[in-house]
Design brief:
The protein has about 140 residues and is of the alpha+beta class. It has a single domain, classed as 2-Layer Sandwich (Heat Shock Protein 90). Helix content is about 35%, strand content about 30%. It contains three helices and five strands; from the N terminus they run βααββαββ. The protein has a five-stranded antiparallel β-sheet with strand order 1-2-3-5-4, with helices on one face. Strand 2 and strand 3 form a beta hairpin. Helix 1 runs antiparallel to helix 2 and helix 2 runs antiparallel to helix 3. The longest helix is centred in the middle third of the chain and has 20 residues. It is globular, with a radius of gyration of 14 Å. About 30% of the residues are buried.
C-alpha cells in the first residue's frame, strides 16, 4: 500500500498526550477510539486500530523510557497516531513475520502491523517513533 500520510507534522493535530502508566493507556485507547469514530471509521477497524495503538504505547512504557507521547492527527483520508519514547531504541527493527511460538515478546508490533494500513518504525539511541495509520 502507498503511504497514506506524510506524518503528523503535515496534518492538523487532534490531540497530544503523555503516557506514563496504565491509567494513561486507558485514556489513550478512549482518545483513539473516539477520534476514529468521529472521523467515520467502522467499528471493526476502530477496534483494530485501538488495539494496535495500545500495543505500541505499551511497548513505549515497558521497553522504552517508561513514558511516551501520543499524537493523533487526521486528514480527509486517514487517522494517524504517532507514539514516541526516549528510550535506548530498538536493537533491530522487527521484521514483518510473526514471531516464533517459542519467542518471548515481539507480538505487539507484529499485531499492530496486521491491523494497520500503514506502520512505520524509526529508532535510534535517542528513542523510538512508531507511526500508525488507518484509511478512513
Amino acid at each position: 500500500m502507498d503511504r497514506p500520510v506524510d506524518g503528523p507534522d503535515h496534518f492538523p493535530v487532534v490531540a497530544t498526550m503523555r503516557v506514563h502508566g496504565a491509567d494513561d493507556l486507558v485514556r489513550a485507547r478512549r482518545l483513539v477510539a473516539t477520534t476514529a469514530a468521529g472521523l467515520g471509521l467502522g467499528a471493526d477497524r476502530i477496534e483494530q486500530f485501538t488495539i494496535a495503538v495500545n500495543e505500541v504505547a505499551t511497548n513505549a512504557l515497558v521497553h522504552g523510557s517508561g513514558n511516551g507521547t501520543i499524537t493523533v492527527t487526521s486528514s480527509e483520508t486517514a487517522i494517524t497516531v504517532e507514539v514516541r519514547d526516549h528510550g535506548a531504541g530498538l536493537g533491530a527493527t522487527p521484521g514483518p513475520d510473526m514471531p516464533h511460538p517459542t519467542d518471548i515478546g515481539g507480538r505487539g508490533l507484529w499485531l499492530a502491523r496486521q491491523f494497520c494500513d500503514h506502520l512505520e518504525i524509526s529508532s535510534s539511541t535517542s528513542g523510538t517513533t512508531v507511526l500508525l495509520a488507518m484509511r478512513l
